[in-house]
Design brief:
This protein is an alpha+beta fold and about 475 residues long. Helix content is about 50%, strand content about 20%. It folds into 3 domains: about 5-100 and about 110-155, Beta-Lactamase; about 215-300, Helix Hairpins (Orthogonal Bundle); about 310-460, Histidine kinase-like ATPase, C-terminal domain (Heat Shock Protein 90, 2-Layer Sandwich). It has a 5-stranded antiparallel beta sheet with strand order 2-1-5-4-3, covered by helices on one side. Helix 4 packs antiparallel against helix 5 (about 270-300) and helix 6 (about 310-320) packs across helix 8 (about 350-365). It is rod-shaped.
Length: about 475
């Protein structure tokens, strides 16, 4: 698909080219016609001279000889051919070249003359045929021909000039149109780049407004006003989630306390089972509110991280140790492999939470009695943490959206319960640290999640 700049340049070049070709066509034919009209005027002038010479000679009862006629000349005419005949077609002054050219147009009127182009041999001539007026006697017809070599040469030179100048003019015009259009769209390109950098996490940023008072400035102001409205809506949404989560935590704590008391003080098996199910649901609700609160903090326009120099190897091991009980309950082996101990800059609490979410996800979707591999290695200036499970893998339809909020995996990975926030938290933590996280399927089965973090906290990530 062509860009707007390309379409404008093509349209300008097309219009400019049509105008140039039309102008060249008019100039070419006007110049050629003007040259032919000059030749016609000179032929008519020469015909008058010949008629005068014939009239003077006829007064002496003599017809002028070829030598008498050949001495006549007209400025601008060269290589003239002359033929005179009577109305019966008898040649009075013959010309071998003109004899091969028939008289076009039929019989001439007494005061009529015709001028046409005719090719004689390998040359083109302008041929004038008209009556000879001798004392008002129109008994003779004169044909005068002049070669058009100079006219055609001038026309060819003019055509060559046009064929050279027009392409160069089109190229120059296209370059000028491209430069001007690019300059005109540069503020728009800058706005596009700024808009691409703005996301839900940095809605406090604005598009630079150009100084010029034109449509581009109005567009920038309109976009900024729209971002302001979106930012206000997001802030209200964050505030609502934070407030709701805070309000829910207290009653959940009370409910859990009362349920635990009821479970301890009741010996009826059915009641204890029901209370246990209720306690499980309370824990799930508590986990949801905790995840929502964390996402709200991570999405805050203010700096959401407490960065310091941390030991990544220790963070990995703490996360593994915290998930050991959950893994042992299903007979799953957690196999950490740390190539070396090294430090990095980051938020220790957030990084540990991200690793716990990744390991929890791997345990949740691993087969019972399986194995989860956790590898920490230093790749240049990047710390790479790879977590691999032996589960069913990620469906092709879910893989592009696996880190989106509230996205639940397809049936192949629909084990366990969750709200689709764990991996979203991992992605947000990685982004805030200037890193990345990605997922892929392993050929031997299972899924592999790779978290990459820069060892030094990037300045671009600090707000």
């Amino acid at each position: 698909m062509f860009t707007i700049t390309t379409r404008i340049v093509l349209a300008y070049t097309l219009v400019f080219g049509v105008m140039l070709i039309g102008f060249a066509f008019i100039i070419y034919h006007s110049t050629e016609q003007s040259a032919i009209e000059k030749i016609d005027a000179r032929l008519e002038s020469h015909a008058d001279k010949v008629s005068t010479e014939i009239e003077e000679e006829m007064r002496n009862r003599e017809f002028p000889s070829v030598q008498d006629i050949s001495t006549l000349s007209t400025s601008g005419l060269h290589g003239i051919r002359l033929q005179i005949m009577d109305t019966a077609g008898r040649m009075l002054l013959p010309d071998s070249l003109l004899a091969a050219v028939p008289v076009a147009g039929g019989r001439l009127a007494p005061d009529q003359a015709r001028t046409v182009n005719a090719r004689i041999g390998d040359r083109e001539y302008r041929v004038r045929t008209g009556p000879v007026d001798v004392e008002n006697n129109h008994g003779m017809i004169m044909r005068i021909a002049a070669p058009l070599d100079e006219v055609r040469e001038d026309a060819e030179r003019l055509k060559l000039i046009f064929l050279t100048v027009i392409p160069l003019a089109l190229i120059a015009g296209a370059i000028a149109a491209f430069v001007i259009t690019r300059a005109g769209f540069r503020p728009v390109s800058s706005m596009v780049a700024s808009a691409n950098r703005i996301s839900a996490a940095n809605l406090d940023q604005r598009i630079a407004v150009p100084k010029t008072r034109d449509e581009v400035r109005h567009l920038a102001e309109t976009l900024n006003a729209m971002i302001e409205r979106i930012g206000s809506a997001f802030q209200q949404q964050r505030q609502f989630i934070a407030d709701a989560s805070h309000e829910i935590r207290t009653p959940l704590t009370i409910i859990k306390t009362e349920l635990e008391f009821g479970e301890r003080s009741n010996d009826i098996a059915e009641v204890k089972e029901s209370i246990g199910i209720a306690l499980g649901e309370v824990d799930r609700m508590a986990l949801l509110t905790q995840s929502l609160l964390l996402l709200v903090r991570l999405d805050s326009p203010h700096r959401p991280l407490n960065t310091a120099v941390v030991r990544l190897d220790e963070i990995v091991m703490r996360a593994v140790n915290r998930m050991q009980v959950l893994a042992q309950n299903r007979g799953i082996e957690l196999a950490p492999h740390i190539a070396e101990a090294f430090e990095a800059e980051g938020d220790e609490e957030k990084l540990e939470r991200a690793l716990i979410n990744l390991i929890d996800n791997a345990i949740k979707y691993s087969n019972d009695g399986g194995k989860v591999s956790i590898v920490l290695e230093n790749v240049g200036a990047v710390a790479r943490i790879t977590i691999t499970d032996n589960g069913p893998g990620i469906g092709a339809t879910s893989l592009p959206y696996i880190f989106e909020r509230f996205h639940r995996a397809d049936e192949s990975r629909a084990r366990g319960e969750g709200y689709g926030l764990g991996l979203a938290i991992v992605k947000r933590v990685a982004e805030l640290h200037g890193g990345s996280v990605r997922a892929r399927n392993v050929e031997t089965g299972g899924a592999c999640f790779t978290l990459e973090l820069p060892l030094r906290f990037p300045a671009s990530a600090i707000r």
